[in-house]
Amino acid sequence: MNLEGQMPMNALQAADRGKTLMIVEDEVLVAIALRDELEAASYHVLDLTDRHEQAVAVARESTPDLALVNIQLRGRDDGIELAKHLKALSIPVLLISGQVSRARSAQTVAIGSMPKPYSAVEMVEAVTYLLARIDGDKSPPRPSGLEVFEAALGDHALS
């Protein structure tokens, strides 16, 4: 589901960076703001989704480098259950939720958690950090607010 029906304005920059992200968020304005900021940072963001089933279909088709998943999704869908399915597809998940204790309970299926409220700029920093870590680069400093689940991150690291 495309919440706004528009192509990324900086698709060439995103292609240069080569990293594709998926946002699964039930709050439309939050999802759009996040997408816009991540695209401005030269990431390619897939169509926004807010349901478990749609997200799995998009993930299978596009294989994003990282999925940003809210714990509470549209209807009765649960982001932690979605994270389990995405992990089975070898897609790392960053939980983006105010439900901090539930996020911590999902350390085996997510690589980290960014508690709400966060700014879009903080999310770009968190995404950049996590993608660098997945690629084996341990030099960037961890952004404040980002909780990294080292054991799960190790499952996705290339080196």
How would you sum up this structure, described in words?
- With 159 residues, the protein is α/β, with parallel strands linked by helices.
- The protein has one domain (11-156): Response regulator (Rossmann fold, 3-Layer(aba) Sandwich), CATH 3.40.50.
- It is 43% helix and 14% strand.
- The protein is built from seven helices and six strands; from the N terminus they run αβαβαβαβαβαβα.
- The chain has helices at residues 11-17, 28-40, 52-62, 79-88, 100-104, 120-134, 150-156, and strands at residues 20-24, 44-45, 66-69, 93-97, 112-115, 147-148.
- It has a six-stranded mixed sheet, sandwiched between helices.
- Helix 4 links the parallel strand 3 (66-69) and strand 4.
- Helix 2 crosses helix 6 and helix 3 (52-62) packs parallel to helix 4 (79-88).
- The relative contact order is 0.14.
- Residues 1-16 have low confidence and may be disordered.
- It comes from Polymorphobacter multimanifer.
